[in-house]
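Researcher: Structure prediction, please.
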Amino acid sequence: MDFAKLSAERYSLRKFSDRPVEAEKLELILESGRSAPTAHNNQPQRIFVLQTQPALEKADGCTSMHFHPPVMLVVAYDPAAAWVRELDGKNHGEIDAAIAVTQMMLQAADLGLGTTYIGVFDPEKLLAAFPEMAGLRPIAMLPLGYPAEGAHPSRLHTERKPLEELVKYL
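Model: Predicted structure follows.
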């Protein structure tokens, strides 16, 4: 699929089938997150793959968004590893992790899988549920899997503001 078509047709999947995600496809998605550009190439993004039933249930308890995917990726960043802009002290870890999430979402779509970006979660509860994330800042939960029968984009998917409203030429 060409990129323009991929980026236009990718949508937030909210209805997953129970079909497992093949290890090879998961590896390609994770690689796209690893290869994402980061400030000063510090690579502060950390990706957790939740695919056991106990892990998925713990993650489900940290959000009000319940889509029941076969895989949940939790993306976080290590603030100590991220580049910090000297001028104002801005830590770029969240930006770097968000770029990794975007690349993984697009790679998943290219492989016929679906995702949705969940930002509605309790980070403290998530950190308590998964001690492996200690010292990190989670930014997104990313359900991953194949679309269930009848899955479709939301009615708002194609509603976009005019380019002229979003872009200014100076």
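Model: The chain has six helices and four strands.
Researcher: Thanks, that helps.
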